[in-house]
Design goal:
heterodimer; A: 345 residues; mainly beta; 8-stranded antiparallel beta sheet; 7-stranded antiparallel beta sheet; globular; B: 119 residues; alpha+beta; 5-stranded antiparallel beta sheet; 5 helices; 5 strands; 40% helix
């Protein structure tokens, strides 16, 4: 373990799928906790006891994340080497990078709220983001130039940091917050949409509207949405309008009563639509026949608070790709997006 | 910025309110601040419009502690600083604005208002 990356500073550890990070003795590590710079919790959260070794071979019972280059154990000793292994036990030098999905000049967008980098308070991207302040610009990391924008302060979500899971997120107030991409994306029938988000609470009243999705600007076709009355119901919205409709969407399906901590993923091709939902208790994957899609309408990415629902949602990140992903790509993307919300898929 | 704060204005002063917030908002989209339609029944037409927003500290003071004349001077100064379209009168907006903190839905309910659901 220590020989693989000995001496190289660790600037970041990304959460990986269960079982893919292994200790020197081969036992899996299921969680690595990260904390804000210089502020680990007093107790630290334990890994599997003694399963992660320091480079000098001594066991570590807790790992905290500090400023760049200073990964330390709970007792303050520096960690100089951590190796990642894939599910088959083979060493791998890096975790999945969504940028690889756009390497072939794929159209789409990729948003992350993993730090303040790429986030700005104003829509002109001149004032850097800060925890507790509004966010008016979220960089599109795909390189395609579709930032999420909001120029009205009242409608901007607020950047928050959850100390429990050590994650940044955008908090939508459920009143008037919304962000949208600046440019249209030409969405194909073969498409992939994923978002890492979290239901903070469920309010009473009439609820509708998507948290994140890709929508035809005119008909709101193709997207991930939430439509709720008393229970939280996530729906793939076929040809139903994103902010309307009383029940099941045309050509789509619904999965009811999904709880907090949910990652949602929609993948579709000419033959089928796959919807993946994950809450803290169980994952649900549903496959249905593809809806009749118009296919090439301009799409915008939208992140919305849910007007009138009293719902407060957390947005950790999102992916929209105007192409069909391979099974491996989808697994990697799902795992990656799950890690953005602090859940292990 | 501080907040967030809950704001309500009557529909009759929506245009004036939008003109004022076009100046007060440090970003370029302030004219769209009041976007939540409200009525006593929750049905159209809207009698009021609401917003939930962060405010610059100076703006919060201006909205809550200044006289109309003082507020007009504050807005005029900001319009120059920010290069925004000046507003003629702020009286209707200033005298009509309801501002408060806390849960937005409880706030509008306390005013006898409900949100009008989009069609």
């Amino acid at each position: 373990m220590k020989d693989q990356v000995k001496g190289r500073p660790i600037h970041r550890i990304d959460e990986v799928a269960a079982g893919t990070l292994k200790a020197a003795d081969g036992r899996p590590v299921h969680a690595v906790s990260t904390y804000v710079d210089g502020a680990p919790p007093a107790d630290g959260r334990p890994l599997h006891a003694a399963s992660l070794l320091l480079n000098e071979g001594q066991p570590s019972h807790a790992v905290s994340f500090y400023a760049a280059g200073t990964l330390m154990t709970a007792d303050g000793r520096p960690v100089h080497a951590v190796a990642l292994f894939d599910a088959a036990g083979a060493p791998t030098s890096a975790v999945f990078d969504p940028a690889t999905l756009f390497a072939g000049t794929e159209d789409g967008a990729w948003y992350e709220i993993t730090s303040t980098a790429g986030l700005f308070q104003d829509s002109a991207a001149t004032v850097g983001a800060a925890v507790g302040a509004v966010v008016g610009y979220v960089t599109d990391k795909s390189g395609n130039g579709y930032p999420l924008l909001q120029a009205t302060t009242a409608a901007k979500p607020i950047l928050r940091f959850d100390n429990t899971i050590s994650k940044y997120y955008l908090e939508c107030d459920g009143v008037d917050d919304t962000m949208a991409s600046a440019l249209g994306i030409t969405m194909q029938v073969a498409s992939y949409v994923s978002c890492a988000w979290h239901t903070e609470n469920r309010g009473a009243g009439t609820a509708f509207g998507p948290i994140f999705g890709a929508f035809d600007a005119a008909t709101s076709e193709l997207g991930i949405g939430l439509r709720s009355q008393t229970a939280v119901t996530y729906s793939f919205l076929g040809s139903a309008r994103y902010n309307g409709g009383a029940s099941a969407s045309v050509g789509g399906f619904e999965v009811s009563s999904i709880g907090r901590g949910t990652l949602i993923e929609l993948s579709m091709d000419a033959d089928s639509i796959d919807l993946y939902l994950l809450d803290t208790a169980a994952a649900t994957e549903t496959r249905t026949a593809a809806a009749a899609l118009t296919g090439t309408d301009p799409i915008v990415a939208k992140l919305m608070g849910l007007a009138a629902s009293g719902f407060v949602g957390r947005f950790y990140g999102g992916l929209i790709i105007a192409d069909q992903l391979t099974a491996g790509e989808r697994t990697n993307a799902r795992t990656y997006m799950g890690s953005q919300a602090g859940v292990i898929v | 910025m501080i907040g967030p704060f809950n704001l309500i204005v009557p529909t009759g002063v929506l245009a004036n309110s939008s003109d004022v917030f076009n100046i007060l908002d440090p970003d370029s989209g302030g004219a769209a601040t009041f976007s939540v339609p409200l009525s006593a029944t929750g049905l159209a037409p809207a009698t009021h419009y609401g917003a939930r927003t962060m405010l610059e500290e100076g703006t919060h003071v201006a909205l809550t502690a200044m006289t109309v004349q003082q507020f007009k001077a504050y807005v005029d100064e900001l319009s120059v600083t920010r290069g925004r379209q000046p507003v003629g009168s702020v009286t209707a907006f200033k005298n009509s604005l309801i501002i408060g903190e806390g849960n937005f839905w409880e706030f509008i309910a306390a005013q006898g208002l409900k949100r009008i659901a989009p069609a």
